[in-house]
Target: Enoyl-CoA delta isomerase 2
Amino acid sequence: MAFVTGRLGRPLRSSLLQVVQLHLSRTMGASQEDFENAMNQVKLLKKDPGNEVKLKLYALYKQATEGPCSIPKPGVFDFVNKAKWDAWNALGSLPKETARQNYVDLVSSLSSPSESSSHVEPGTDQKTPGSEDVVVTSEDGITKIMFNRPAQKNAITTQMYREIILALEAASKDNSTITVITGNGDYYSSGNDLTNFTKIPPGGIEEVAKSGAVLLREFVDCFIDFPKPLIAVVNGPAVGIPVTLLGLFDAVYASDRATFHTPFSHLGQTAEGCSSYTFPKIMGPAKATEMLIFGKKLTAREACAQGLVTEVFPESTFQKEVWARLKAYAKLPPNAMKISKELIRSNEKEKLHAINAEECTILQGRWLSDECMNAIVNFLSRKAKL
Ligand SMILES: CCCCC/C=C/C(=O)SCCNC(=O)CCNC(=O)[C@H](O)C(C)(C)COP(=O)(O)OP(=O)(O)OC[C@H]1O[C@@H](n2cnc3c(N)ncnc32)[C@H](O)[C@@H]1OP(=O)(O)O
Model:
């Protein structure tokens, strides 16, 4: 797949889109006119449809033109060709004509009027600033920043990181008293959108890793420096960075449906959000190890017992109870709250910035590792879920 490490050789660096286009350009004399039109349409798509769709297109194209997959299965470390082989092989003995039709249907759904205007396929991050993926509202002295991609479990796209940075900067200066981060739908957030790694610029995967590390550092710095009380309203499960960041919040209220999961080793990655420092400090090194190294998932009550969560509420009354409490807190004198936060947090700030910088440097290297690439390929090809 597109983002697979350069260490494995040049062909693996090319994006899956390029691979699909290469195949498409080698026209194999498909006789059906609709099929040929669809192939041309793919080349004209304005937006990258995402790797999952590209894999489907590739598989259907191969099936339509060559029939069932009969080539040898690529080696386990040949990620790109293996993902393609898996997708093609999964079509089994689907007749060529059906594959051709499915290909045409799929392309037509991608080229629908909604796609050519503002709709973006799930997993892409090309929404314009002000998109609906992060919703910011201000009421009753509370600025609420809400992850709003419920269909993708509020996975955080590159664009969303940028929008949250802007929202925090604005909230630090607006006339609200406290700031809340929450999620829309059944998840708080499933963490970094794993397709963030699959959009490969001309500089290759190294550039993706470098710009990712810069963005992550800026993002986490905003939480370290945020001057007002910052509250997490954890409405459901959380995975990865939305969990690690909790160590930088001033209070964390969780539904009893919420879970807290940092499966970094499973993903070939390492701790971020200053959790390599805040978690051992909050819960002690042994419990932090279980979470950050072994990926142990905590229930809300376990997270509360470890000190990561302030209080757990029954799901049935969660929203009502938490917002009533927050509205009351938001009426407290804002300057007193800010100054108290400064007292509690300021002596750690310099250290936290240094830790953030180090975690980002280490992660930049991890993102180029085979372990990480393999985990992402597995997720995207739907072989692995956490
Ligand atoms: C640049 C800064 C980097 C910062 C570093 C951050 C690191 C992290 O945050 S590491 C954590 C990364 N997150 C994950 O690995 C979670 C991956 N997701 C899952 O394992 C599962 O989706 C699930 C357990 C969160 C939910 O499973 P389930 O209830 O079965 O729901 P689906 O898998 O069907 O999900 C629905 C829909 O949402 C898409 N999706 C969910 N999470 C992500 C994600 N993190 N990245 C990309 N896409 C995600 C999922 O693919 C489904 O999409 P469709 O198939 O298109 O419906």
